[in-house]
Amino acid sequence: MNTYNLGYILEMLLPVIGICLPAKKRKYGLAKAVAIISAGVFVGISTSSFLINLGYKEEILSAIEAGSIAFGYIFAWFFLIWVSVILAIFNWIEVTKQEAVYLFAISYAIEHIFYCIRVIVEYLSAGRIAEHEIVQYILTIEKPFNIDADTASGLIYGGTSAMFPSAMTLAQTWNQDLALEYGTMIGNEALLGGADGWYAPSMNIHRTPFSGRNGEYYSEDAFLSGAVASNEVMGAASKGMYTYIKHFAFNDQENHRGDRDGQYSIATWLNEQAAREIYLLPFEMCMKAGDVELNYIEKQADGSLANASKTIRATQAVMTSFNRVGATWAGGAYGLITGILRNEWAFDGLVMTDNANTAVFMDGYQMTEAGADVKLTSIPADARYDFDENDPATYYYARQAMHHMLYIVANSKSMNGLAPGGTVKDGTRLTTTVMRAVTIICLLLIALEIYKIFRLFKPTAKKLKKLQAKAERKAAKAAK
């Protein structure tokens, strides 16, 4: 649950609440109530989000999660009755068109003001998190700051926010050149916005039309999925971007996949022929798509610097899935990750889990022992991994995981601008500064919009006097 979701719920609920109020209380009373509710909820949720980002106490997360469930039920109930009831409400209750427009405008503005404030809070949180002890270890090896971004139809952050048609639409063109161009466009977006990795392309199979993620996947045909996905990977990699091809593997459904309390992921049973000929084929095609050229600056024997280049595999990262392969979680399946991915396909890049914030069955040691590397989580407690540097096995697996991560960073656009002898200095990108400025300006404009709407309900004495004078002149003119 976050401030944007809450704002979206308020956008739908508040107009109806306001419309159902008695006519005398519908104006100033609603505006005042909206302001008080918005301020109180924002303070509570933004403070909790800030503390969670800093890694403080699972109790906060549990409380917010409980609230999320409650709000989820409210939202689901309200959405079902929205279309059928709203027109009836307007007809049954004395509401002018102007009042209805004002009420919806207030709630719409509140949604966006919540979003803008959340963005600002996240900026402030990011600055504090950079001081965390864990980050200090990263600084000792001068690892650049990296941004990995969703989704399959574009970069929701770390780009220009441009979105493209779905993966299914692209696959239905049967146009490999277009797929290559799409991947190249994603790479260009990343050069503009700062993203280094892309949580895509997604290439699970359409086993049924009802799968919750079919919009991200290409087809029920394995070869078509692999042909389109591998070209996207090549295009993005040509711009120095590493792509997390996902979800590896056999991710057949979203329902009960394991990202809710009490779920321990769905068990997927299949034979080796089906696995290799259908579900693994798109991933294999990406692994064998070919290499891209990497340009860099090389130090010569005499100390001078010169341009150099080498080729690297286009596919540099993999995201594992929630589901189990048989009874074993896919992200901790040795035969899948080490046996096929590492050994058969000679993959030496990074293997990361899907969102691990809620997946209690994703054991960190099992993951590294299977040959995978990192967990996708923003909550330290959800790493579910106790590092013991005195244990030879733990130390070895952790060292391998760090090697894989640093390898893909060193061979990506993260190193643009660096040369031998240079020093990594992470700073705010120009695009980020512009986005922050635009966010603040929009926040002020939205606040002004709310004020203007409020004044339409309750004009100032000066404005009221002008309106009365105007009405009197109009009445006098009509009398003549």
List the helices and strands and how they pair.
Blueprint: H1 3-20, H2 28-53, H3 58-92, H4 97-129, H5 133-140, E1 148-149, H6 167-171, H7 176-193, E2 197-198, H8 222-237, E3 242-248, E4 267-268, H9 272-279, H10 281-287, E5 291-299, E6 305-313, E7 317-320, E8 324-325, E9 328-329, H11 334-344, E10 350-355, H12 364-370, E11 374-376, H13 392-410, H14 430-457, H15 461-479
Parallel strand pairs: 1-2, 2-3, 3-7, 4-8, 7-10, 10-11
Antiparallel strand pairs: 5-6, 8-9
SS content category? alpha/beta
Radius of gyration: 27 Å
CATH class of the largest domain: Alpha Beta
- Tally of domains: 2
| Unreliable stretches covering 5 or more consecutive residues | 1-8, 21-32, 68-95, 123-134
What's the tally of helices? 15
Largest sheet: 6 strands, parallel
The named CATH superfamily of the largest domain = Glycoside hydrolase, family 3, N-terminal domain
Across the major sheet, the strand order is 1-2-3-7-10-11
What does it look like?
This protein has helices at residues 3-20, 28-53, 58-92, 97-129, 133-140, 167-171, 176-193, 222-237, 272-279, 281-287, 334-344, 364-370, 392-410, 430-457, 461-479; strands at 148-149, 197-198, 242-248, 267-268, 291-299, 305-313, 317-320, 324-325, 328-329, 350-355, 374-376. By secondary structure, it is of the alpha/beta class. The chain has 2 domains: 3-127 and 432-479, no CATH class; 144-422, Alpha-Beta Barrel (TIM Barrel), CATH 3.20.20.300. The strands form 3 sheets. It has a 6-stranded parallel β-sheet. A 3-stranded mixed β-sheet has the order 4-8-9, with no helix packed on it. α2 (28-53) packs antiparallel against α3 (58-92). The protein starts with a helix and ends with a helix. Residues 1-8, 21-32, 68-95 and 123-134 have low confidence and may be disordered.
